[in-house]
Amino acid sequence: MSNQLARESYIPSHQSRRCCYEREEGLCRANAQTGSPFCFFHDPSLEKERAQARHVGGVSRSRRVVLPADLPAKRLQTATEVVELLGETINQIRRGKLDLRVSNAIGYLSSILLSAIEKGSYEERLAALEAAVATPSHSSSVPFDESESFDFVQQDPPEPDGHKQRETSDPN
What we know:
The protein is mostly helical. It contains four helices and two strands. Helix 3 (79-94) packs antiparallel against helix 4.
């Protein structure tokens, strides 16, 4: 019996009920409502419901979403601190405690902040390198006077008794 009922209520896709409202471009392609030849947007008997839906949609869309005023300020000066904020934000979204518009703003601003932190780190490192090159420290200075001359041939150390070693001649 249930199979017969299912077959009778089944409407093939080529015969599916479409809204019969005629637009300039042709018929509306939306599915018609049950018991009506029109879709929700074109049914003349639903004018009041459509107006109410537009009003509710406009109010909720224009409603300003703000976080509580007593929310403590968050220190965001390192990448680790920004990552902690993003983790908290993700968990608040998952629990349904934070509006998606607020979370999108936090995500976007966090991205900008992380980029600025990275650039600031590069600037600090570059300034340190420039300072090191401009004024070398004493620890890296050469341990001799620049005017000294050097013999770069290795010489044997003197004998312990003060006598010079006998030089050997090279047969070549």
